[in-house]
Amino acid sequence: MAKTGVIGAGSWGLALARLLSKNGHETTVWSHREEGVRDLRENREHRTKLPGVKLPEDIVFTSDLEEAVRGKELLVLAVPSLHTRSTCRRMAPYAKPGQLVVSVSKGIEESTLMIQTDIIRQELPAVNAAVLSGPSHAEEVGRDIPTTVVAGAKDRSTAEYIQNVFMNQVFRVYTSPDMLGIELGGALKNVIALAAGVADGLGCGDNTKAALITRGIAEMSRLGVAMGGHIETFNGLTGIGDLIVTCASRHSRNRRAGYLIGQGMTMQQAMDEVQMVVEGVYSARAAKTLAEQYGISMPIVQEVNRVLFEDKPAREAMADLMLRDKKIEHPELPWGNA
């Protein structure tokens, strides 16, 4: 049994806390909202973010960050990616050297272009930072629907420890050393999912969705490999797998926000309607900047940015994607003799 602390009481943090508790681990969940903590203690359910999912009685809920962090063998950092840095700074007085901190958030920090585990290492340099990611909607994990994810760490023993803590008969965990690829896949797919949602909002069909997913993974892979990630990662669970589920699922907040934008809402109106953090909005600018820095063509990401931040009409953006210069799908493939 491991002593675990889940930092963040949103839907994903609570789904993972439930999983850890059911796996036999001592689990404490922290929320910065005292009223939210009281409600969770009394009702054992987050009635808006994870309705119908009952949380085990042995999970401890607290608004005291020290209680959630100090003495824990494993910390699950489950706050929205834009709050990772500020939360790590608050954790710093209580985190101990070598403590394992597993990021389960997906995003690239716009101001620094850093992935989540790099932010953790910068703010908590003595801890052991790792990542857990994959196609895993909280709504399904909370209901024990079979799910498969990947644990990424610098060393095999850490990844295998995470695998052992989380894995059970409905939650399968693979391991990987490619932390950069895992995190880039998790962040970039949210931007593509916004485009898929916009297409749905415009009334496009399955053909369009398939095109966006396929060309989206091509964009993600080009940038990820240029930055040092591995193509195998983008072809796996945290690349194409996570992209498919986020572009297609009714649970996806990024797809939902894109759908509302395709229906005519502004970015802010769509975010207000979704009532949850839409990570793709915060990663879109970072993705565009990284593409420019590395000289990578990412036309879907470019058009998403124009729709989000330059008020470009969604239908016009879709038309411009379709009417780009003629291309060869795989330029590296040779032609046969005429």
How is this structure best described in words?
By secondary structure, the chain is an alpha/beta fold. Helices cover 51% and strands 12% of the residues. The protein is built from 16 helices and 8 strands. It has helices spanning 11-22, 34-43, 65-69, 84-91, 116-123, 138-141, 156-166, 179-201, 206-226, 231-234, 237-248, 253-262, 267-274, 279-294, 299-309, 314-322; strands spanning 3-7, 26-30, 60-62, 74-77, 100-103, 128-133, 147-152, 171-176. It has an 8-stranded mixed β-sheet, with helices on both faces. The protein is globular, with a radius of gyration of 20 Å. The mean pLDDT is 94.
Q: What labels describe this entry?
A:
alpha/beta, 338 residues
Helix-strand blueprint:
Blueprint: E1 3-7, H1 11-22, E2 26-30, H2 34-43, E3 60-62, H3 65-69, E4 74-77, H4 84-91, E5 100-103, H5 116-123, E6 128-133, H6 138-141, E7 147-152, H7 156-166, E8 171-176, H8 179-201, H9 206-226, H10 231-234, H11 237-248, H12 253-262, H13 267-274, H14 279-294, H15 299-309, H16 314-322
Parallel strand pairs: 1-2, 1-4, 2-3, 4-5, 5-6, 7-8
Antiparallel strand pairs: 6-7
What is the approximate shape?
A: globular
Mean pLDDT: 94
Strand order of the largest sheet: 3-2-1-4-5-6-7-8
Order of helices and strands: EHEHEHEHEHEHEHEHHHHHHHHH
Main beta-sheet annotation? 8 strands, mixed
Q: What's the number of helices?
A: 16
Helicity range: 40-55%
- Strand portion: 5-15%
Let me know the number of strands: 8
